[in-house]
Amino acid sequence: MKSLRKTMQVTLLVVFVFFLGCDSKSTDQQVKVPKKEAIDISGFQSIENVSSVTEETRQVYQRYCAQCHGEKGHGDGINAPYLVVPPRDHTKGDYLETRSDQQLFDVIKLGGLAVGRAPCMPAWGYTFEDKTIHSLVSYIRELCDCKSL
Ligand code: HEC
Fold this sequence. Notes:
By secondary structure, the protein is mostly helical. 54% of the residues lie in helices and 0% in strands. The protein is elongated and about 90 Å long.
């Protein structure tokens, strides 16, 4: 009788471990899948987020960006010689087409430092609404005559 109980206990344990094993495997998979899906896409430049370039966009660029990036975006603004890292030439498509619109948006909104670039590229998130930043991205695409990655 005693040994029967023991056998049952062992069997239960084996069954339990077996299920636990299966379960932890499937939890692994369950964890992986939502992680992939859970990438935050809230700021991505979806179609409705593309703001077209207006006269205001050009003025914003002249007023806030040109002193470093140059009036025509060649990276030769009046402050450029004094910066440790040269401001990006916004007319150079060969580099800018390796960047997505989202990456340009992020660097403008959050600043160079936040995206692993030079801190002398300031953050503009407190100065401009997202819409204006999206339109600046569009304007840079116009300057480089290139497309998002
Ligand atoms: C104080 C100077 C300065 C001002 C003002 C400035 N930038 Fe920059 N910006 C830089 C520098 C320096 C870099 C290069 C960063 C690097 O390569 O690490 C840069 C890089 C960039 C880049 C490219 C990021 C990359 O992937 O290399 C974009 C886009 C950009 N700036 C947009 C703007 C816009 C739009 C404005 C105006 C709202 C602006 N910048 C104003 C200095 C400036």
